[in-house]
Amino acid sequence: MNATMKHIDPHTKITSSGRRFPGLRAALNAYSFHLRLGGSKKASATMTLYHALAFCAANNIPAVDATAYFFPGYPDVPGDAALNAFKREALRMGVCLSGTGIRNDFVTADANVRAEGVALAKKWIEAAARLGAPVLRVFAGAALPPDETAEGMKRLTDCLHQCAEYGSKHGVVIGVQNHGDFLQTADRCIDVVKRIDSPWLGLVVDTGNFKTPDPYADIARVVPYAVNWQIKESPLGIGNKQRTDIEKLLGIIHAGGYRGFVPIETIERENPEYDLAAELAWLLDAFENAQSA
After folding, report:
1. Residue 236: which residues within 8 A CB-CB, separation 6 or more?
2. Which of 236, 254, 250 lies closest to 284, judged by CA?
3. Which end of the chain is less crowded, N or C, counting CB atoms within 10 A of the terminal residue's CB?
4. 27 bridge partner residues
5. 84's torsion region: left (phi>0), alpha (psi -120 to 50) or beta?
6. Measured over all CA atoms, what is the biggest interatomic distance in the chain, rounded to whole angstroms?
7. Is it the case that residue 286 has pLDDT exceeding 70?
8. Backbone dihedral region for residue 231 (phi beyond 0: left; psi -120 to 50: alpha; all else: beta)
9. Cis before 10 (ω within 30)
10. Is 183 part of any domain?
11. How far is residue 189's CA from residue 191's CA, in Å, rounded to a whole number?
12. What is the C-alpha separation between 124 and 141, in angstroms, rounded?
């Protein structure tokens, strides 16, 4: 280093963010629009993932989690030209891609289904790398009877090992989600991550799907293993009237050392009384209010 240059410690703060929980940035999971994106058998799609990008840009949401099943042709991966075009539009709008995700079952006893899931994950790992999405979300699979849990865990970890190894070759982290299925508690989530023991495997923490008496306690325990998030309206599941305490939640996430995007995800419902815009506004406003309180 030039002797005339003053040393700067990389940890030195030279600006003030004015944020209570610096390093945490809101994002939007595209699944929030799942009915409009074609997730209903009763009606055709009225939106595309391009509209999700536009929504984020219009509402100053810095990133979107672009769920894979809303790309045309899923489970097939779009061609390179289509992926490149989506990535280019995201750049034009100033919206980052915080991740993507697939449907799969890694605990099933059906070896063919597991193999298909791993093959699908590998295809979408390559797609995520091309898109610049750092995380691919996968599921564990359905809950199993107690006497089948041990074998299910072996099957799950075998599949996740393969995915994490492939992800490492493409620079994509695998995030397994606690989806209220095989993964319902912090204990089991942590057990899975420790069995894989890879920097390319972590958790996509779904704050509404810990089936325990105190979900916030489970969330606090898994923060060190988190690579992405799904922040739900309630910690007690879909439709529960108890709202998530966003300020408390962000405090837990920040104290646990996580930094990065924190996607919100509301579950759009086929209910005339359900107001998607109001739910998204509540989550986003609560996030911003907690940051500035």
Report:
1. 208, 215, 242
2. 250
3. N
4. 263
5. alpha
6. 70
7. yes
8. beta
9. no
10. yes
11. 5
12. 18
Phi, psi at residue 204, to the nearest 5°? -95, 105
Residue type, 264: I
Instruction: Note down the domain range covering 125.
Output: 24-292
Of 9, 53, 6, 7, which Cα lies nearest the Cα of 28?
Answer: 53
CATH of residue 147's domain is: 3.20.20.150
Structural domain tally of the chain? 1
Average pLDDT over residues 205-231: 98
Whose tokens are 């280093």? That residue is: 1
- The residue type of 37 is L
Whether this model's pTM surpasses 0.90: yes
- 73 — pLDDT class (breaks 50, 70, 90): very high
Q: pLDDT tens digits for 153-182?
A: 999 999 999 999 999 999 999 999 999 999
Asked if residue 79 is part of any domain, the answer here is: yes
- Tokens representing residue 76 in the block: 């097939």
pLDDT for the residue numbered 174: 99
Length of the chain, please? 293
Taking phi first (over 0 means left), then psi (-120 to 50 degrees means alpha), and beta for anything else, what does residue 99 get?
left
Over range 81-101, report the average pLDDT: 99
230: in domain:
yes
User: Would you state the torsion angle of the CA atoms of residues 139, 142, 143, 148, taken in this order, to the nearest 10 degrees?
Assistant: -110
197 lies in some domain: yes
- The whole-angstrom separation of Cα 43 and Cα 103 is 21
Q: How far apart are CA 221 and CA 193, in angstroms?
A: 13
Give the span between the Cα atoms of 279 and 286, in whole angstroms. 11
User: Which 3 state secondary structure label does DSSP give 63?
Assistant: strand
Strands (E), the chain: 24-29, 63-65, 96-101, 135-139, 173-177, 201-206, 226-230, 260-264
